[in-house]
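check this one:
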Amino acid sequence: MESLEEISEEEAPKGPRTSSFLSGKLTAKEILATKTQNYFAETKRTEDILMQVAFSIGLGSIWRFPYLCQRNGGGSFILMYFFMLLSFGIPLLYMEMIMGHWLRVDNIRVWKQLVPWLGGIGYASILVCILMSLYNSVIITWSLSYLANSFDNSLPWNQCPLVKTTNVTDLSCLRTVSHQYFWYHTTLSASGHIEEGVDALVLHLTLGIFAAWFLLFLTMITGLKISMQACRPVLPVMLASACPSSPLLLTSGFCLDPPGQILIFSVFLLYIVLLCFLIRSLFLEGAVASLRRMVTTELSSWASLDLWRQAGGHVVYSLGLGLGTTINFSSKAGGNSYIQVASLVALVNLVTSLLLTSIIFIVLEFWATTSGHTCVEKSVSKLISLIKKGVLPQDAKPPEDILLLPALDYLDWISNLPQHLQYPVIHFSPSCSIMTQKDKFMEGPGLAFAAFSQAISLFPGASLWAILFFLALVIMGLSTLMSILEGIVCPLQTSFSLFRRYPKLLSVLICLGGFLGSLVFTSHAGSYIMSLFDDCLVPLTLIVIVAFQNVALAWIYGARRFREEMFSKLGHLLWSFFTFLWRYVTLPGLLALFTICLTQLHRRVPSYYIAWNSSMPACHFIPDICAVHEECQHSRFKAGEPGLSNHRQQ
């Protein structure tokens, strides 16, 4: 094909001055087009990296890492996670990125081309994406629920709700902090067992999950991109016509993607809000002690197989390994610096997780420090102040010696009050726990929601902070779920001609099936089922898929052969250290993790999950799928006193 300069010289007049003038003018156009092309390509690469980082953050940093860290002793889990992140997290993330960049196909065809008889790896990734999309949609629903409640001038989680009927659940709000009560009682309407309430849906959660899947459906059928999918070129026609011989300029223009920019903006907004939360929480009582506890490491805890399982599983989960999304993304992205990108994604993921965990640890220590007798003192002081102001009658005045008695006697005094006095006394009680709480009295995926609702309450104009925070969570949740769905949609459209001819049919099937499949998580026991999915099923499946990927590339196709192929593609050899890791470090590590997971499934001591129970205190563990009895590792209370119980499978 003739260049633009040659064509122009043939068509120009034969005079030497004119020819020289036009030649110089065209050269200037080419220079301008090249600079513009480089600018757009660099901007697109930056946006791709930011969206990859946003996907990793939204996948597990916000709600998953903090409760795993708190469950496993803080510093021990952080150190173990960091060790596994370096040893096989970054190498495996780099492996998926470089494979997508090399073959430029989706996660189904990449394995069919590489090792045809292992083509089922791509379909296994789709199955995991389906599972993750089901229970990630309920996390969006929880964020929507909190967002809807954020528009009240007085945030509903700041105090015990004022109810119209008398029952023992009223006093349960005083046995724990109101933020935890709001989570279990108001947001989830949680049952006491995983077997109870599975067939009964919570109305507002059902409406929320319908709204989430409907938004995703609109996004898919209208072609909006709020995740990492490549979009059409939008370079001005004038710049394209200046250099028609440049295919890159015509096919990979800058992606003017407003929803994608909204996602990136929400990430920066989230960081600003989190930094404000951290600064404010540092002034809370017990902040220094909580941070010290967070970084304290007990080497003896490394003997726990459960610590290895959960740290390794979260490395695979948080980086999105085995989902196929990284391969799909890299097949469309430009640039060759995937070592730096993989390291950056892992680093930002870790820093974000530590930032969130610091805030949550401080809040938990604040709850524990202000519980028990300290809470009774605050409650009595507030009641006396309200009586002096005339808000409460004199009959609501506590006994003179109430501060000399155990904390439980204060609850007994409230329970013996007349009905018309019980309501306001409970409603005006400060947000603290009458029961003496330990520093680990709440766990599970809801820990982040309860803790951050407490952090929000510390600010003036708390409603605005709540709206900003939970709106950012909703946007990040939708974008993360969209990225997961791309791991389903893109491979199926390229593999089946029916879905290529009718792309909207696939969107309808996925969103309708996702909505129906997610309904189980909106039941009264839905949060318990979601915890078991997240803790047992999905990490194990991802480990198996990533192990097969590692075997296929490093041993069946051959790491040395792959290195040679990449030399012809990139023009330089891959760092031999990574091929060594793929062959002798990551694969044995994944097999060891898989063995530990199988061992834990058949161990004598069963797994657990936290449940809201009407006969137990605010304890700090969570029941299993076939729980048949209740036990608590700390003090017990008489029947009828709500709290959290530790159910275990026998």
About this structure: The chain has a mean pLDDT of 78.
